Amino acid sequence: MDRKKINPTLKLVLEMGPIVVFFVAYLKLREKLFVIGGTEYEGFILVTAGFIPLMILSSAILYKLTGHLSKMQVATLVLVVIFGGLSVWLNDDRFFKMKPTMIYLLFAGALGVGLLRGQSYLKYVMEEMLPLQDEGWLVLTRRLTAFFFILAVLNELIWRTQTTDTWVYFKTFGLSAAIFVFFMTQGKVFQTYAIPEDHPAEAEDL
């Protein structure tokens, strides 16, 4: 299926909507207990249970509208289903809290494998958004690999040592802000290794 362009606002809603809903629902249900089938569930577990189908639905709509999901989006969805499902099934919030750790370790590992082969897998994901020379992609990939590993370690430290409230705020705002800041601080790389607009042939070769 060919990729299709959709309204950027709609795309943002589909990508970030489930996270926003998760956060709002958690704030409303975090102090409540629910008895289902004779078993007590905290609000966090019920919110997680609702987050899983919401992620599946938003991803399906995004794929239907664009004809494409990135490998990162697919990997994230799979891990949400696996670790979120384990948390609900076992009534244990630790599995869902581990999810960001697994996601960032997976991304760091995948990018690291590419670097060992002298390639930038990041280029295949973001080439349309950031036209860079090959050397620039390698520089950015090395930095992002280290950054993902740091985020994985940080997530482990937060959920293991802090309250669930702190972790939810960290996951909702902290991780997103950290990624935004990371790319904002890479301006020198983008400037140094940008492909000149008057060299279309070079851009096609990369």
Automatic annotation (TrEMBL):
<keyword id="KW-1133">Transmembrane helix</keyword>
<comment type="function">
    <text>Plays a role in cell envelope biogenesis, maintenance of cell envelope integrity and membrane homeostasis.</text>
</comment>
<dbReference type="GO" id="GO:0005886">
    <property type="term" value="C:plasma membrane"/>
</dbReference>
<dbReference type="Pfam" id="PF04279">
    <property type="entry name" value="IspA"/>
</dbReference>
<feature type="transmembrane region" description="Helical">
    <location>
        <begin position="74"/>
        <end position="90"/>
    </location>
</feature>
<feature type="transmembrane region" description="Helical">
    <location>
        <begin position="102"/>
        <end position="122"/>
    </location>
</feature>
<comment type="similarity">
    <text>Belongs to the YciB family.</text>
</comment>
<feature type="transmembrane region" description="Helical">
    <location>
        <begin position="41"/>
        <end position="62"/>
    </location>
</feature>
<feature type="transmembrane region" description="Helical">
    <location>
        <begin position="167"/>
        <end position="185"/>
    </location>
</feature>
<feature type="transmembrane region" description="Helical">
    <location>
        <begin position="143"/>
        <end position="161"/>
    </location>
</feature>
<feature type="transmembrane region" description="Helical">
    <location>
        <begin position="12"/>
        <end position="29"/>
    </location>
</feature>
<keyword id="KW-0997">Cell inner membrane</keyword>
<keyword id="KW-1003">Cell membrane</keyword>
<keyword id="KW-0812">Transmembrane</keyword>
<dbReference type="InterPro" id="IPR006008">
    <property type="entry name" value="YciB"/>
</dbReference>
<protein>
    <recommendedName>
        <fullName>Inner membrane-spanning protein YciB</fullName>
    </recommendedName>
</protein>
<keyword id="KW-0472">Membrane</keyword>
